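Lab manual, section 2.4: Encoding a predicted structure.

Procedure: take the sequence of the chain (285 residues), apply the prediction step described in section 2.3, and record the output as structure tokens. A sample record is shown.
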Amino acid sequence: MKKISILFLLAISSIIFILSCKKDDDTVVKNMVILDDDGHVYDINTSTGALTLLDSITLGGSNLSGLRDIEYDEANNMLYACLDNSGAGKLLKVNTDTKVATVIESNSSNNRYGISELLIYNNKVYGSTWGKDVAPVVRDPSLFEFNSNGTFSQQLVFANDDLCCGMGLEFKDASTFYIGSENNIYIGNFSGILTDTLSLTLVGFSNSNTGWGTGDYVGIASIVKDGSGQYYCTVYNWDSPNEELYFAKVSFSSTTATLTYIATLSSDDTHKYKGLNYLPESIFK
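Recorded output:
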């Protein structure tokens, strides 16, 4: 009996050890990163906006020019990237070890402008952009749906054709998202339907520095949610003297999105810093 009890205790201890190891394996440390349009990836301090260069994404031996956003598919260990209008709105995959990109959808038919941001949903890749009048695509603000291998699937046209200017994209919950527009953030779904409109309230932005006022056009370039559920964004104002780009914290109510100033990222109209993302720390370190 004593021998059986000892064996039983050893078995229980082994199970506890295995479960504890599994728990450790499932705990993935993540950090907030921001991209620039020359392929650089930076850590961004969410309290101060301070940037620390981590790595670069390359294509054909050179830094990836026109980089707009990246999105990590955890289920398949796949990192996707998209390019802005200067990069013809291409979709790419990125080797997470070498950081070398490969074009998987070249937009050879030139049916869209640059892709603003990406989301992964139900094994599909979605990009926010404007289509062009190149059949079967129409010139409207849309989600472009791609299969996981990059092949184009369909254009989901938003009924509100005022949606433009930034088009930052992030999940609200498991099946809906926030998408930035001029002076608003919309709530939408993956059928291309916008269900709610949230007006912007700005806190801590100095009018003397930005020139922001009533009627200005404010664009949300990128939205991201961290592990605690806190949202952040990059935001710019077309009517400010230099179209500066800012980093801000975002809080939502049923009718408004409040943007609280954290830092100025660029003081000219190049909007050099683009997409925000919350990724496993092991990818860029």
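Check your result against the sample. The longest helix spans residues 2-26.
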